[in-house]
Amino acid sequence: MLISGATAAARGAYEAGAGLYITYPGSPVVETFEVLRSKGSPAASKCRLAINEHVAYHTALGYSLSGGRSFVIMKHVGLNVASDPAHYSAYTGVRGGMVILVGHDPGATCSTGEFDARLLSLHTNLPILEPGNFQETLDFTREAFIMSEKVSLPIMVFIPSSLCYGMGLVFPGAVIPSLPPSGFVKDRGLTCVGPMAVERHRLLADRIRNLAQWRTPESSEDPEVFHDRDKSVPARPFPDGRLAILRSDASISDGVSFPEARVDVGNLSSADSGEGGGILIVSPGPLFHMVAEIAEGLGDTEIRGVYSPAMTFPLNEPDFIEALNSTGAKQLLLVEELEGLLELQIARLSMNRGLRFSRFAGKEIFPPFGSLGAAEILSGLKRFLGTSGRVIEETDNGDAAAGQQVSESPLAAREGTFCPGCPHRAFFQVLLKNIGDGIIGGDIGCSSLPPHYSDWLTCMNSGASIASGVTLAEGEAHCATPLPTRTSGRRKVVSLIGDSTLLHSGLQTVAELAAIDSEQVLFVLDNRWTAMTGHQETLSTPRDVEGRLNETALDIRSILEALGVRKIVEADPFRLSNLGRVMRKAFDTKGFSVVLIQAECRLQQGRRVRNPKVSEKFTIVPERCRRCDQCYSGLTCPAIGPGFDEETLFLDPELCAGCSVCRQVCPNGGIASMAVCRPHSGGEETK
Amino acid sequence: MIFLKSSTPVDREGNRCTNVILTGIGGQGIVFASQLLRKAVGGRYGNVTGFDVRGGAQRYGHVAAVVRFTRGPAFPPIQPGMDIPPGGADFIVSLEASEGLRFIDRMSRQTTVILDRFTVIPTNVRRSGGFYPGFSEAVSQYRRRAGEVAALDLRKTARACSDKAVDANLLALGAFCAYSKGLLDPDDFSWAASSREMELIKTGFAMSGVTE
User: Fold this and answer.
1) Would you state the torsion angle of the CA atoms of residues A104, A107, A112, A118, taken in this order, to the nearest 10 degrees?
2) Sheet containing strand B18-25, strands side by side
3) ipTM associated with this complex
4) Interface list for B 79-108 with A (CB within 8 A)
5) pLDDT digit string (tens) for B84-117?
6) Contacts of A232 (CB under 8 A, 6+ apart)
7) How much is the CA Rg of chain B, to the nearest whole Å?
8) What is the pTM of this model?
9) 8 A C-beta contact, residue A169 and residue B48
10) Which residue in the set B83, B126, B131 is minimally distant from A290, CB to CB?
């Protein structure tokens, strides 16, 4: 089957017979969950959307401790949210296999940040598997459940956005039927407090050491923890790594054997330093194939091979040593995206074992930020080789010399923006007009799309909570300013939060802000969905995409009132004048107040309201348009663009969502409504 | 440990990996078109890899799909990486005239660029008034790098054919077939595309005779 990496991971968990699939949606692994819960999926009934990653992780752990196999899906920053449970789960261990699929995002192509969440394993001690292609994504995810049960630890499978969103050929395996959990077993070992926590920590350290030093046993005397359940077969607990042998005269048919620099775990110092020597490149995950392809193209015979461990934490020492032995390498180059997780581990191993290389490089060549594409890898390899390698391929790059990297793209970055008809566009239009020199605390979600609108934009729930500190400082700064030099009143501080983020992590903040009567206005931008990640429902989504009423949906206003917010006002974002009045009044109100902006995401509304009988559309009236560009440059609605003659503007009726905001913004009456009638064919909203 | 024997990234028939970039902006159906393309390629050749940049999908940001495939029965032991090496693009299909320029370092004289005449100035450039190459400038830059440049009226034709501009993505797939010198045929899509989609792919194939 031809599937994406995200879907391959879903298939792997399904083949392993997981009984619980749980997530809080986050790109790039949203698709993994959506595939599992899609219509007709046999796993659909076992899928759960959690309120946040912390709860998702704990729920999965509880299921696992009760004997079931659980699969929890989150993005790299989601793992930050779940880090507390992740730490303790390493202490408690698991019973049923528990696998955490983490989608990470070097280059921040679909995220606010690109933190290397793998480094959390240096702290949590949770093992990491990094598949290198689509087939391995399926295989490693499936195998991770078995590994989890063998080592009694949750296992993390990391896949980058490139692999999630790519597509490749995958051969599925047999499906293990999902068995019901055997039930929770009481165990004092689950109490991780004081001395008991220290004891659990000791056991955890033993497990990780065993994994790091595990080697194919010559007898069945190896640590019991890694035996199969029948206690008879000492089983390798983690998937095999790969070693690409690149030296042209190498033959693997007779076994790999480079005579020089033979090293053993117990005698590592024999791989002593010296000048030059073969090069072993270590590169995990999908980079492996890219690095091998480019290294091969360079044709430098010093590069003996490329090694990619399947388990990147803890690094299995015997496997790494075998890779060194097999290639006879004396130089080591680590090609890793983001931080040097392997570099750290190999450096430590080298120090502990007295292993010395004639050259050891990683992050000094490949930066700890951004993604590594083919161009960056080629550039880094050439730098390591002192540009001695020949060019990967003889190409004629037009103006550029053959093989020379040509100039960077002349294009400006293209920011994402709001869709036509988005309530956030209307909201910001009014906010920016009324905020003056005020301060806007932004938050994660669709409202963050044009990032320049907010004065900061970091993590979930960053808006109101950072604003809480800013209001304190603003108050002190204002009071500290000598009266004669005060030119204006205290700056207004506002914060934003979406409905999904409010439920994810904002509720405690709101409770505190209400209690301390923080000097800020919080705008709750409720578009009824987790829209940014593809419209997953939240606990407050009133109707699903089919139009079915959710009778248990939470009412956000009631929640705010229950949290102690005393000043709440609601506003329709598409009535610009009225929204402006509401805002100005809120800005004049002392203390903490909330403006609840409720309007459903137009994309999702459009999916539910199929084939509407009549929808209002707008058009530019050329005779009245003065090209003031308030709609084009200010509102930046994608439906409005230059006309064919470049002198006039054109409002694309296909894109126009009929929100009327452009008409309200135009000072010249240059935008007018036109009714677009469509044939009546049962086009009423689904009830 | 799994040992992989050295080999160049070619298939068993000795063909070099074929590298295609499909790009445009969010809302143009790049993700959908790339999935169809991968299925067509996978159905015919079996071996396909690559990745998408989807962060701007639906929201008018940059979107791209890298599709790499070999024409043999199986990938070599060392598979092609997910990204295309510098100068390695065989085809760049740009549904927005200028977006293909983001891959200028992947172009060479072996590259064929197929672009729509349609341009969309980014909203950040709208506000700032900065430079963004229009159609003519984009074509000029492609010509300096690429071997063949084909500018087509995909969006306009889509509107005429189906009243839906987004169908330009299907026309582009047909155009790609026409310029692929037999690598791919519209019929390769038949198992993955609906009859309506097939009609548009074939229309794109038929309209692709204009080379600038």
Assistant:
1) 30
2) B47-53, B62-70, B18-25, B91-94, B112-116, B148-152
3) 0.92
4) 79-88, 98-99, 101-105, 107-108
5) 999 999 999 999 999 999 999 999 999 999 999 9
6) A220
7) 17
8) 0.91
9) yes
10) B83
